[in-house]
Design brief:
The protein is of the alpha/beta class. The protein has one domain: Glutaredoxin, CATH 3.40.30.10. It is built from 6 helices and 5 strands; from the N terminus they run H-H-E-H-E-H-E-H-E-E-H. The chain has a 5-stranded mixed sheet, with helices on both faces. The protein is globular, with a radius of gyration of 14 Å. InterPro entries: Thioredoxin, Thioredoxin-like_sf, Thioredoxin_domain.
């Protein structure tokens, strides 16, 4: 059991490195419209909401299995919607004040922000098709 947990932790750390965009984006277009989820926290959260018209914030935590289940879906959607929607990930354990600001009581929670304002949210691990329908409805 301990070995399995070590493997999970290692894989999660690899995923986190990938998601944080180590290596950076290439060119101005990629910087303007990232094609990977970006890590947000108390120091850059408001700035990201102001910078992009459409932002989907994934409120998650490392220990949350449903959060881990939707992480690859969020990765795919970030690629598919690059230029239209920016995907951001906020660790609720590390940023409880932001989670409290938006009334996050269960994770994963996805909130769709339009022009810096929350317009819709879904709570729980949904299949890709459902999340995509939700995004299209809010665009």
């Amino acid at each position: 059991m301990d070995e399995l947990e070590k493997i999970r932790k290692k894989k999660l750390m690899e995923l986190m490195k990938k998601m944080s965009g180590e290596g950076g984006y290439q060119g101005k277009q990629a910087e303007k419209y990232p094609d990977k989820p970006i890590e947000v926290n108390s120091s850059n959260f408001d700035e990201i909401l102001k910078k992009y018209e459409n932002v989907v914030v994934d409120f998650w935590a490392e220990w949350c299995m449903p959060c881990r289940m939707i992480a690859p879906i969020i990765e795919q959607l970030a690629k598919e919607y690059a230029g239209k929607v920016v995907f951001a990930k906020l660790n609720t354990d590390e940023n409880p004040q932001i989670a409290a600001r938006y009334g996050i009581t269960g994770i994963p929670t996805l909130i769709f922000f339009k022009n810096g304002k929350p317009v819709d949210k879904i709570i729980g691990a949904y299949p890709k098709g459902e999340i995509e329908r939700w995004i299209k409805r809010n665009l």
